[in-house]
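Memo to structure team: turn this sequence into structure tokens by end of day. - J.P.
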Amino acid sequence: MTDDLKRTTTSIDNLGREIADRKEAEHNAKLACKELEKANRELKDMQSERVQNAKLVSIGQLAAGVAHELNTPIGFVASNFETLERYVSKMRKLLLEYEDLIGQIQISEKSELLDKTSVINKTRNSMKIDFILEDIAGIFNDSREGIKRVASIVQTLRDFSRVDQLGNLDTYNINDGIKTTLSVAMNEVKYGIDVKTELSDVPEIICSAGQINQVLLNLIINAAQAVKSRKSDQQGTIEIRTYATDYDLVCEISDNGPGIGPDHLPHIFDPFFTTKPVGQGTGLGLSISYDIIVSKHNGNLLVDSSVGKGTKFTIKLPLRRKKIKNESEVSRHERENSIICG
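Reply from structure team:
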């Protein structure tokens, strides 16, 4: 009887310790879950901050290129109007002499009129009025072309950024996106770089156009900077190719730059990793690009590089994707894929 009581007491004690241990484990699990939720929120905040920083870098690069591109047409428009002002001043002076001649006709003798006509002709020739009359039409045409170019650059920026559609998914033609992005990045690629495009007739896809354009801009600028960093007399080349497979839309962007070393290649998409000199790169462009293609569009971003030969980035985007109708559905989708603890 005494032994049974001892065993029962021991069992109760063990059960009590197990219950206490289980409660402690449950409490620790809840604390760990809360810490995990906190870490998850912090990671999302950090990711959002990285996205904004990368956008600021892209905007800075963009602004420099746009300022240069806009400066040229605005410059010759301003110069042409200064020239027009001088031309009009000369013509005004000549017209005043013509008016004086008309007044003299009524009161002067014929010989005096001939002398006056001779003076006017000399003035006309010295001012090159015939050339001015011919040049005015060309100046107006050039000025009109300059204004059209400025308008085109502004429209290209609007098409590139798709500011009004950044939160939405819509149909997108990657060939148009490449052409638009090349126009935006023209200041980076037009000096000493031969850009070759092989754009196949590919289907449209459902995606965020502004985000894909941002990826294209990052990869094209990276390629241009890589080509410029070469120590070679060989012509710098960037090749852009698009095509479609049974399941994917593919875009390849390759360059004949110095390439990426095997030690660096595994880290190329790591946040803040860069091979550029201090102050010339944030290490965010490729990381953000990878996140946009892989996480946000269920695609793939691949890199193939050989030292001394160049680098090729390959974007793969699924041809078939469900179109998310509004931002609330996007938010719901993100919540369903986040960590939830009770």
